[in-house]
Write a structure and sequence with these properties.
- The complex is a heterodimer of chains A (216) and B (343).
- Chain A is mostly helical.
- The N and C termini of chain A lie far apart (48 Å).
- By secondary structure, chain B is α/β, with parallel strands linked by helices.
- Chain B has two domains: 237 residues, Rossmann fold (3-Layer(aba) Sandwich), CATH 3.40.50.300; 92 residues, Alpha-Beta Plaits.
- The longest helix of chain B has 18 residues.
- The termini of chain B are far apart.
- The chains are: A mainly alpha (216), B alpha/beta (343).
- Chains A and B meet through helix 6 and helix 7 of A and helix 2 and helix 3 of B.
- Chain B: Keywords: Amino-acid transport, ATP-binding, Cell membrane, Membrane, Nucleotide-binding, Translocase, Transport.
- Chain B: Pfam families: ABC_tran (PF00005).
Chain lengths: 216, 343
């Protein structure tokens, strides 16, 4: 019996980690360039093309306004197109990523916004191009904030992935709801919550360590 | 041909005239001080000189190339000829001191090996050997500014602009940074333009002073002549008030506008660079039997010249020959008033 429960929890943990890791990575890959785009087009000392970045901001806000469980259902055709199926862990990565990209883009935007204009000016005066400003100033100077933001995003995804059970993705949250809550199995519920707390603690700890490593 | 030739430079932001019709030249190897109160147009002038701002009118010829006519792409190259030192250092926190100095070289596309050698050379030049691995957060203000200077001259610019480079530093550090800049000027022959609101910095350091007021260039000459000739111009007197001797409060309260039966005259005497180094006070005693007390002031070094600016108290009313002597020797003789001679 306990062995069975342990097996269930181990599988669910793996599914959660898989979903969170994959969608965090995708959020980073797509969210960061979007954040850079929004900042670089807005700043008058960089590209100064506000009409280009503003619609991106609207789109991001629109996606963030949709409750995740609705997004999950709305995106089923998209998921089927990208993942080939609309059910399972792999399929859940699609809506999770699409929710995570705008979330991370806004968080990254905040970090990039904090960069002092003087640093950008310094590189411009050295004869640096705008692209060099992004490469030498914006990204490296904001890196601690960008990393902390990724940690926050990953932890939010741990919570969001619980809802992905609705499309058969499995995972810890789904386990807690189906076995713990719906079948009144309190033992499983507490066990799963304990694992979730541990998982979130691990992500937070790893993020903090990484930030400290680059700050030195 | 001058290194820098600015002519008819005007810069307008909407209806506001930030700079109007500014013309001046800078020769190679000069140290120029640009001074003015806040809002005088110093920052705008600086931004025009490093091609961050395009002026509304006028020409800026640097090494013969007109910065106002270049395209954005050409400007990127032209800016590499100008080094800029910032008030708040503007160092990248994610990079070490050496990394910060290397940045302009990386931008200019130098190969790695040459960058390392050049950075070591620059660290030694600014007196930061062994500090190259430190982050800006581990350096003191003076050390940060040394990194800022090394970074600004890394690419061997022909012009070094300093934007209030010492305004965030304490007096001792200010002196050491100015010494470093003077040293760089002497050894590398680098032309320096120092933009500041601190008259003291300009006095000690600049060969020539440009005074900006409400966007106009109102003075262009040596510090000593500026101090000598500024009488009566309230704009200049305001700026010079910092380094001018002023009457102590206690005396000011006892000051009478007219001579009385037993009063001593108080005079402000300014000796220009021609006479500042010659005996003066002793003459007053030996030739005119005056006991003269120096109340405030003395002789100042202004760039390479000397200037005396003193407030003197005389033991007796001024005789006609004494007045003639003062007129001949001193540039400015101003009777400030009379104090009762009881003490």
């Amino acid at each position: 019996m306990y062995r069975l429960i342990a097996r269930l929890i181990a599988d669910a943990t793996f599914q959660t980690v898989e979903m969170v890791a994959a969608s965090s990575l995708i959020a980073l890959i797509f969210g960061l360039p979007l954040a850079v785009l929004m900042i670089a087009t807005r700043r008058t000392d960089l590209y100064d093309l506000p009409w280009l970045g503003r619609p991106v901001g609207w789109l991001i806000d629109a996606i963030r306004a949709i409750p995740f469980i609705i997004l999950l259902v709305l995106l089923i055709p998209v998921t089927r197109f990208i993942a080939g199926t609309s059910l399972g862990t792999l399929a859940a990565i699609v809506p999770l990523s699409i929710a995570a990209i705008p979330y991370y883009a806004r968080i990254a935007e905040i970090s990039l916004q904090e960069i002092e204009p003087g640093l950008i000016e310094a590189v411009r005066v050295m004869g640096g191009t705008r692209w060099m400003v992004i490469r030498y100033v914006l990204i490296p100077e904001a890196l601690p904030g960008l990393l902390s933001g990724l940690t926050v995003t990953a932890i939010t995804l741990v919570g969001a992935s619980a809802m992905a059970g609705a499309i058969g993705a499995g995972g810890l949250g789904d386990l807690a709801i189906r076995y713990g809550y719906q079948r009144f199995n309190t033992a499983i519920m507490f066990a799963v919550v304990a694992v979730l707390i541990l998982l979130v603690g691990l992500i937070q700890g790893a993020g903090a360590l990484a930030v400290r490593a680059i700050r030195r | 041909m001058s290194l820098l030739d600015v002519s008819g430079l005007s810069c307008r932001f909407g209806a506001q005239n930030a700079l109007s019709d500014i013309s001046f030249q800078v020769e190679k190897g000069e140290i120029i001080g640009v001074i003015g109160s806040s809002g005088a147009g110093k920052s705008t002038l600086l931004r025009c000189l490093c091609a961050l701002e395009r002026p509304t009118e006028g020409k800026i010829l640097l090494d013969g190339a007109d910065l106002t006519l270049l395209s954005e792409r050409e400007l990127v190259a032209a800016r590499r000829k100008v080094g800029l030192v910032f008030q708040h250092f503007n160092l990248l926190n994610a990079r070490s001191a050496a990394g910060n100095i290397a940045l302009p070289l990386e931008i200019a596309g130098w190969p790695k090996a040459r960058i390392t050698a050049r950075v070591d050379e620059l660290l030694a030049l600014v007196g930061l050997e062994g500090h190259g691995h430190k982050r800006p957060s581990q350096l003191s203000g003076g050390q940060k500014q040394r990194v800022g200077i090394a970074r600004a001259i890394a690419n061997s610019p022909s012009l070094l602009l300093c934007d209030e480079a010492t305004s965030a530093l304490d007096p001792h550090t200010t002196a050491s940074i100015l010494e470093l800049l003077a040293d760089i000027n002497r050894t590398l022959g680098l032309t320096i333009i120092l933009i500041t609101h601190e008259m003291e910095v300009v006095r000690r350091f600049a060969h020539r002073v440009l005074v900006l007021d409400h966007g106009a260039l109102i003075e262009n000459g040596s510090m000593a002549t500026l101090m000598r000739d500024s009488r009566g111009d309230p704009r200049l007197e305001n700026l010079l008030a910092d380094i001018r001797p002023t009457l102590p409060e206690a005396l000011k309260r006892r000051l009478l506008p007219d001579p009385g039966p037993d009063t001593r005259p108080l005079l402000r005497v300014v000796l220009g660079p021609e006479t500042a180094g010659t005996p003066f006070l002793s003459h007053l005693t030996t030739r005119f039997q005056q006991e003269v007390t120096l109340i405030q002031g003395g002789t100042l070094a202004c760039g390479d010249e000397l200037l005396s600016d003193m407030i003197l108290s005389f033991s007796a009313p001024l005789s006609a020959p004494l007045s003639i002597f003062l007129d001949q020797r001193a540039h400015v003789t101003e009777v400030l008033g009379y104090v009762p001679a009881d003490r």
